[in-house]
Design brief:
mainly alpha, 0% strand
Amino acid sequence: MMADEERELRALLERLRQEHRDLDVAIEALQEMPGSDQLQLARFKKRKLMLKDRIGFIEDQICPDIIA
């Protein structure tokens, strides 16, 4: 992997991690509100899981597990 590609992946990874943290805060706030929108809460949780999978995929591209 070229240095530019790795730098771009690391920048993307940081943005995805930030969005994941932001969703944590939003989910927590929504859960604490009485009468919260359950559909919106489900969408946030689904998005958070998708981000987690994508973060894992990118981390594997940056530093792959090599079985010797």
